[in-house]
Amino acid sequence: VRPFRYASAAGPSAAVAEVARSPGAKFLGGGTNLVDLMRLGVETPDVLVDVARLPSDRVEERPDGRLHIGGAVRNSDLAAHPLVRERYPVLAQAVLAGASGQVRNLATVAGNLLQRTRCLYFQDVTKPCNKRVPGSGCPAREGDHRALAIIGHSEACVATHPSDMAVALAALDAAVGVVGPGGEREVPFVGFHRLPGDEPWRETVLEHGDLVTAIALPPLAYATRSRYRKVRDRASFAFALVSIAAALDVADGVVRSARVAFGGLAHVPWRAARAEAVLHGAPATSETFARAAQAELAEARPLRDNGFKVALARNLLVRTLSELSEAP
Amino acid sequence: VTRVADGLARVEGREKVSGAARYSAEHPVERVAHAFVLQATIARGEIQSVDASAALALPGVVAVLSHEGAPRLQPVDDGELAVLQAPAVAHRGQIIGAVVAESLEVAREAAGLVRFDYREEPHAVELRTDDPRLYRPDHVNPNYETDTERGDFEAGYAAAEVKLDQVYRTPAVHNNPMEPHATVAAWDGDRLTLYDSNQGSTIVRDTVARAFGLAPERVRVITHHVGGAFGQKGTPRPHAILAAMASQVTGRPVKLSITRQQMFAFVGYRTPTIQRVRLGADRSGRLTAIGHEVAEQSSTVREFAEQTAIATRMMYSAPNRRTAHRLARLDVPTPSWMRAPGECPGMFALESAMDELAIACGLDPIELRVRNEPEVDPEEDVPFSSRNLVACLREGAARFDWADRDPTPAARREGRWLVGTGMAASTYPARRRPASATVRVEASGHYTVRINATDIGTGARTALTIIAAEALDVPPDRVHVAIGDSDLPRAALAGGSMGTASWGAAVHGACRSLLAALEARDLAIPEAGLEASVDTTAEVEAQSRLSRHAFGAQFAEVRVDADTGEIRVPRLLGVFAAGRIVNPRTARSQLVGAMTMGLSMALHEESVMDPRFGDYVNHDLASYHFAANADVRDIEAVWIEEDDPHLNPMGAKGIGEIGIVGTAAAIANAVHHATGVRVRDLPIHLEKLLG
Questions:
Q1: Please, what is the end-to-end C-alpha distance for chain A in angstroms?
Q2: N or C: which end of chain B has fewer CB within 10 A?
Q3: What is the pLDDT of residues A84-140, one digit of tens each?
Q4: In sequence order, what are the residues at sequence separation of 6 or more whose Cβ sits closer than 8 angstroms to the Cβ of residue B399?
Q5: Is B657 a catalytic residue?
Q6: CB atoms within 10 A of CB A107
Q7: What ipTM did this prediction achieve?
C-alpha cells in the first residue's frame, strides 16, 4: 500500500472540496472494494476522504413521494428498511444477494454503485488492462472471460459491473443525487454508468470531486410485485453470472407495464428497454416473455467461453416473469 | 482400563477460540523485520538485471534480496528450494527476491518499486495428451510403480461383451488452507530458529539445515498450531528458505507471511489430470479388463508425479489390468500433495466409469461393485488386512433408502428442480511410518508425552492425549502432550492419513513401557519422576506384507435447476470402515470436512491457467470458488465397527483423506441421474447442464 493521508469531512461540501483539491484523492465509503484494490496496487490514492460517517445515512420518504436513500446508508440497513421491503422488494432482495453479511454491514450505497469490476486482469497489476493502464490491451477478450460481458462491450474492454443493488436501481428508474465542485445535481440512474467504448476507465458520468450523496426512488405501485434472481457459481458469496431485476404489472392477462434489468451481462447494470417494449400491452404468457428475451438479447455478442449467458439470461427472464405473473 | 468412549473435545480448543493459541506469524520476536516476496512476471527465461534503487531509497527499507548477491545454498532434492540461486525463471510467480523493511506495509510498497528486466523464452503451460514432452516417470508419488500390467489388458478388453472407454478430466486445484504459509526466522550466531507453519517440523528442520550447510541440531523449527494445510505444508516451501536467508542477510529476525494470491504461485497444488478409463465386462457385470491411463503435469524444477491410478490397482477384481502414468514437465509451478493425492482425482474417474458401466450393464451401481469385490489385493496378490467396502455399501444403501431408487435418469422433478441420487466408493491406504516418543511421569502423577507430531487442525494433539491416557490407564486430564517442536523426539509428518497410526504407536509404546516400569515399582513414582522412550522403527519394518486400506461408500442427492443449471447438494452421506476411530468428535469433523472439500471439487474448484501468461489467473478467494456455507447442507459421516489386528496398537487406519475420495464421483453420478447429462470434466459448472 502506498502511504496515503486519511481525512474526514464535516459535511458533503467539505468532503467534495477536499477531494477536488487533489487529483489523487478519493472518497472512502465502507472500503470493502477500494481497500482491497489499494492492497493490490490497483488504486493508489494519496488522500482518502472518509464519507461513510457523513450524516447522509438515512432512508426516508420525501413529500414528492420519492424514497430518499442517503449515500452513506449501509447496505444491510437498506435491505432491512421496512419501506424498501414493502415497496421495492426487488431492491431488498438484490442487496441481500450481494457479498456477505459482514461486507454488507460495512459497504455503503454510494460505494456499492461505484465498485470496480472483478475482471481478473483488472485486479492484477502484472498484466495489461485498458481500464487500469489505457492502451495496454485487454487480455480478457481472449483470456478468462467466462464471467464477463456478452453485450455492450468494446474491443477495449469486456468487463462487467459487479453490483447486484445497481441492477435493481436500474429497473426502478432511480436517480442519483450528486454534490460536486459546481454544486448539486441529479443524474438519472440509467445512463449513470457508461459503456466501455474507447475509454473503459471512465465508468460513470461523474467527474473528479463528484460525491454521490443520495439515491432517489420514484413511486412505482406495482414494484410491490417485483423480484431479484441471481445465478452464480455457488449458493452464496459470489458475483452474478447473470442476474435479473424485474417488476411486472399485469391486468386481465395483459402486461400493462414491466421493468427488467440484467446484471452480469455488461459494463453497466443493463436496463432491458427492448424487452420492456415487447412486453408492454402483450399477453402475459411465456411466449411473450420468450419474445421479449429474444428482442433484448439479439444484439448480444458473447465471447468464446460465455455464450451460455445468453441462454441463461433468456431462461431467467422467462422464468422470473412467469413467476411474477402467476404470483397472487 | 480407561476408555475415552465419547471422545474428547480439542485439548487446545479454549486457546484457539480465545485467540491465545499462536500461529507461526503471530509469535512476537524482538527487532523483527518484515519481508515481502518478489515474484517473476514471465513464465520462462532469465533475469538480465535487477534495479532495487527506488526500493532501497524508501524510508524503512532494510534490504532487497535477489539472485544477485544472495547467500549460496547447498543443494537439496527439491529444486523449488534453490531460492535466488540463479537468474533463471522456471515459472511465472516463482520467487525471485524479497524486500525486507521495518513494516509489512513498507515492504509491500517497496516490492512494487523493484525492477527486473528479463530475457523471455517461449513457454508451454498447458497439459495435453498429444504433448511430445509426456514421458514415463521412474515412479509415482511417493514410491509406487509408474505402470502396472496384469494378464493381457488389450486382449481382455477387446474380447469384453460390454465396453466402456471414456476420458475424465480434473482441473488444477489449490489447497487453500485458511492460514497462509508463514515463517518467522531468527539467527543467533550459527543457530537458526524458525516459527513455521508446516505439517512436520522434523523434515523442515532437516531440509533447512542441509540447505544452509548446518548440522540439524543447530536448527529448531517450532510449529505449535497450524491453520490447515491439506498437503500444501507437507514439505518445506521456498518462502521458509527465503525467510531464513533474509534474516541471515539483514542480521534481524524476519517475519514472512505469504499473501493469498501468492498461495497460487509457489506452495503447491493438485496437478490437472486427463484420465482414460477402459472397462470391459461380461453381461452380468463381471469385470474382465480394467485400464486406467493418466496424463498429468509437473514443473521443470522438480518431478512430482501424482499417483492418480493407484486406487484402480486394488479396488476391483479383473484378470486383465493396466495402469499407467505419463508426466509433462511444463513451465508451471510445481504441483505437490493435496488431500488424497492420487486417490482423489483417480477415483473421480474410476467411480464415474463404474457408474457408466452399471448403466451399460443394466445393473444397480452398488451391485456392480459387489460383484467385482476381490478376495485378495488383485495386483499385489496378498490378503487385505481387512476390507469392508461391501459392508459400507450396504450400510449406506440402507441409510439412504437406496432400494427405492428408480435408476432412470432425468425422471424426477420437484418444482423447478430436477432431482437425482448417486453413489461412489472411497478408499485410502492405511500406512504408518517410524516415530519416537518419550513419556515422563512426575511425582505429582502428571504425565508429559513428548513427540514431534503436528496438529494441523485435525485434532492430533487430542487423539494422542486419548491414546496416552488409555495406555497409561489414567484420566486424560492427567496427560499433557507436547508436540510441534523439532527439538522433540523425531516423528513423521502429518500427512498420508498416517499421523495417528505412526505417532500413536510410539506414544502407546512409550506409555506401556512406563507403565510396566511403574508396575515393577508397585506404582510408586520416584521423587525425581520416571521416563520411558520408544522408537518404532524396527516394529514398522517388521510389519507383515498385507494390503492395508480404509474403505467407504458415499451417497449424494443432487438438485439441478431446470432453467439455470444451478446445482444444489441437499444431502451427502459417507459410511466409512477405517479401523478403530480414536476420537469420534474430531473424526467426524475430519470426515465431514473432507466430504465438503469433495463437494467443492465436484462443483466449484478450478484454477484457471491463462496460457499466454503462464499463471493461474483466479488467484484469490473471490474468484477461486470453494463451497460457501450455503452450499453445505446435510452432510453426514458415519463409520462401521472394524477390528483390524494387523495395523498398530490402536487398530486405527487414518481418516484425514478418505472423506474426499469418491465424493466428486458420487455427485457427478447423481447429476447424471437428475439430468441425464454425464459430466466427465470437473468442476460441474452450470453451463455444462444448460440445454
A1: 53
A2: N
A3: 999 999 999 999 999 999 999 999 999 999 999 999 999 999 999 999 999 999 999
A4: B555, B573, B575, B638
A5: yes
A6: 27
A7: 0.97
